[in-house]
Amino acid sequence: MNLETERLLLRPLAMDDLDVYAEFYGDPEVTRYLGSGQTMTRRQTEAQLRDLIHREKRHGFGLRSVVRKEDGRLVGRSGLHRWQIDGVEEMEVGWVFGKEYWGHGYATEAALAVRDHAVAELGHTRLIALIKRENERSQKVAGKLGMAYERDVELASGPAQLYALTVGPAR
């Protein structure tokens, strides 16, 4: 299943995306606020991509490759990711974009489409974003999604801030 916005197509992840993701995850500026903050090798990126594709098949939702409609270029990924935080299952709206695509509003545009789909089509009434304290760009995106800082959490990869949005029951 695809999601579309005015400028973007959000489609399922594919192994054909590996070259672009390997470039993104090999860039220390892109990975600075992800997980442990370390870059990933091509082999690590391939293993992660395979895992994410498998998770989507198993759960029926997941992260999406974000493609710019005007030229078909893969610019990042956005979608849903399930977490267990303090014994509670949470659904995260996540996003990662290549550095050259920062500052164009793509993260907000894609994440809004994911948020709207999660609420209207999947019936979620609570969504979160997990953001490193220093990542001001992602904090702004979370705010544009209607999320607000809720609390600090400790993840396996280190501390993060949990931003949350709670909406009324899906209609």
| Overall shape | globular
User: Structurally, how many domains make up the residues?
Assistant: 1
Broad CATH class: Alpha Beta
Which fold name is given in CATH as the topology?
Aminopeptidase
**Major sheet strand order:** 1-2-3-4-5
- Tell me the major beta sheet: 5 strands, antiparallel
> Beta fraction of the residues?
25-35%
By secondary-structure content and strand pairing, the structural class works out as: alpha+beta
Number of strands: 8
In CATH, what is the homologous superfamily?
Gcn5-related N-acetyltransferase (GNAT)
Low-confidence runs of at least 5 consecutive residues: none
* Share in helix: 25-40%
How many H/I helical runs? 5
The CATH architecture category equals 3-Layer(aba) Sandwich
The secondary-structure element order is EEHHHEEEHEHEE
N/C terminus separation:
21 Å
| Rg measurement, Å | 15 Å
Summed over residues and divided by their number, the pLDDT gives a mean of 94
